[in-house]
Fold each of these.
Amino acid sequence: MPATNRQFHLAATPSGKLEESNFRLVEAPMPEPQDGEVLLRVHYISLDAANRAWMQSATYRSAVVAGELMAGGGLAEVIASKAPGFAEGDLVFADTGWQTYAALPARHLTKLPAIEPMTHLLSVFGVAGLTAYFGLLEIGNPQPGETVVVSAAAGSVGSIVGQIAKIKGCRVVGVAGGAEKCDWLTHELGFDAAVDYKSAPVFKALKAAAPQGIDVYFDNVGGDIFEACLFQMNNFGRIACCGAVSQYDGAPSPHGPRGVPGLIVVKRLTVRGFIVMDFYKQRDAALAQLQDWVRTGALKVHEDVIDGFENTPRALIGLLAGENRGKRMVKVS
């Protein structure tokens, strides 16, 4: 075991786009678990657009302020335990923060099964997969033959949303940035169509890809894409609001979607925001279904693993720029 613990702190709250200079790599004393705590070795750090939102203000968790350990989820192994129910070698998911070791209360840990590859515990069987599953099925409630549109469709959540919608018999349209991503969605993941928001007016491209209108929209980005989908929703359509990545990094859109109240009323739309913890009582059943889909090949898993703890800031900046396909994570050890 090393003598010190490596950590990334938020050195300065970003005022525009996130930069590597906003973080500081420090060496800290090795943490020691107290009664009721366990000592964890972090193997993988989960990278999510929400990491950037936490630097702006309080969300469903406290804001990260300058000088603090950067927050983030991690897949970790118990190497010492002072808490009943946890033993050396157990795998857990926790809000470990960006560090190589963490001592945390046992009540804040989620024990995980031994699954290979281990990375699936952060992607399809982790927050990304569960977010896609619950957001689409519990809020979107897609029916066979309906049209489902998902934004950030090549990302960790969106790529799973689209595949589940296909499993449920829907026509699926993904919105992504770049021809390569769009080609990947249609040729590798089985989407019916893909819209490249970087190369064409989104409203017109969506209308061509979804000529019968949109029944379910899974929103990961907010902003102009949300607006383009909103105006093409069918009566009694459902919108699952998962994230607003277009508003996180840099200057936000100068306006919100226009005409929202009238459209919601006239089209009798359901618009609901959610976070995955809202559905954790149903977690075991969801994981069983996801595991079955992966086992049978109905659901393909694509992961983007960046090697090296020192590359964590750069990896998050790249995720916000849309570099990744599927779930991005950093391999720590």
Note: DSSP finds nine helices and 15 strands in the chain.
Amino acid sequence: MAEPNSSTTSSDGDHSASYDNLTSAAGRIAQNSIFERFARAGFVTSGIVHLIIGYIAIRVALGGAAGATDQSGAMAELASKPGGKIALWVGVVAFLVMALWRLAEAALGKSSEPGSDSAPSEVINRIKAFALSVVYFAFAFTAFGFARGSGKSSGAQSSGLSARLMQSTAGTVALIVVGLIVIAVGGYHVYKGASRNFVKDLKGEPSDLVRRLGIVGYIAKGLAIAAIGLLFILAAAQSAPSKATGLDGAFKTLLAQPYGATLLVLAGLGIITYGLYCFAMARYVKM
């Protein structure tokens, strides 16, 4: 009987050991008390941003002062308040730490549940972790701009990027693909809320209140995200980049519909509910 190739076996063993060491190191970083506190603070900051977005949406629906009903509008609102810029600088750090945490999960898997998923689920979870890291890096960048006093409307930036993409057929197709992806992300949020799948992300057995906040919050946010994707597709189909203005455009399109004010109030309440759930995640989410 032929003996196993010792060099190959050794190489595989070294590779496995190196991966285990990296995973262990990532786990130690994620479980580091300072790192964990900042990451959890990111959920608090995200909760505050969602509360302000919901508040602005309701204010617009009721005919109050207008404002951008998205994260840039929320951060502009926060920056205008006493101590708001200090809160935004804290938010920059917290969002960056959250982005790095998700990036580590994308590269090495979950430190809290190593090897707990099948191979296909592991791939999907890593893709989701990478997507979340991009979102949190974007949040950090937006917060950084408003903390410095140079923040810009995310809706205007989205519209400008869409206009550049529509200058070519390939760009228009890319915008439609982005819209479909965004709709899929929104659909996943709705599914996660309706199926209560989000409970798996939390430590222990969440209370009925936390479950209700998660159900309503995820469904509301999912519908809002899907509406953004639909606007991207409509903008590409109609060669109207001004329609691709993100969450702000989605809410204002909703307001223009029959019973739009009522619908926008409900949407605002849904986003506020998600913001409250973010506070629950700050305490209970697995790290």
Note: Residues 7-11 have pLDDT under 50 and may be disordered.
Amino acid sequence: MLSFYLLCSIVYFALLGLLSFFWRKERSIPVDFSTPTWPVTLLIPFRNEEKNIPILVDSLRKIVSPELKIFLIDDQSTDASWEVAFKCMQQDSRISLLSSPGEGKKDAISYGVLQADSEWILTSDADCQFSPDWVARLQPYFEKDAAQLIAGAVQVNGKEGFLTVFQRLDWASIALVSQVAMDFDRPLMCSAANLAFRKSAFEAVNGYEGNKNYLSGDDEFLLKKIADRFGNDSCVADFSSHNLVLTQAENAWRDFLNQRARWASKWNLHNSVLHAFQAVIPFVIQLFWIASWGLLGLGWEGVVCFFSIWTVKLLAERLALGKVLRSFEIPVPWFHYVMTSLVHPWYILAVGIWSFSPRIRWKGRLIETPKVKVERL
């Protein structure tokens, strides 16, 4: 049994080492700001974001893009978000304020796409901040006829502490897996906080038809539909620091776990055995690490094995996630890598269990846990 644990830890190290090998530090295409740019419409749905909207608008005003239009789309806010947004939009003539006639983020984005007169659509969230050349850095991809969807990286801003650092490392793992998967024409996931797609592609796949009844998952469902319709190579990734979008970190573990459980609860909605398998594998891997604590009860050989495999685990994660975070110029002390490595398996276990809860909430709305249905590869 001890040799089995050692072998599995070596395989884990090799897997993360392989992923980190395919992570490229800078991926952006150089931008010539003197050339004409594509018209772009940025859609930002919001619900009960009165505290974040002033910060959002301040960041939007700094984006350098003359052909940019920005739609702030109210998703039936119950606080003063509309009034705050209406006041803030006066600061930038590119910003328009819309009210979604439907319910949920998907309806809000669909309404924004309908109102947009540009071919390229960008989406983000109301708690995000952007670099001034964010839109300009995406322009070269708009020239590529094959590109239908462009995914970018996301990281977190927040009060410094272990929870924020834990989220940075978690986002780094998402970026690593997402970028490598797209590079091998196997698009797996993306984030609507940093996403671009063609309006014609959105219309060709009928938007969110087929999954509109589920409030979450606007990004991942659209990714899968566009990949199925136009081919996997139609979805590209630019996860360089130039195109990084910062989102607000969750301030409490409960909120963070609820967010991740909401994301994880969609694992079975793609009617794909392969996608379900890809979702379950990380959970199984973490069960391996949790079970390894039993080695401590097997005498000194078990203790040596335990510390050996966990050292391998830590070095593998430091190698892979450290490379991603260094490319974003985000330093993380060794201590936080150690703490995250210890906590992460239990976090995945908690998220996996929570994802089956019928009481997951988002923006004050109850999300119904979907029924299992996997039919194809």
Note: DSSP finds twelve helices and twelve strands in the chain.
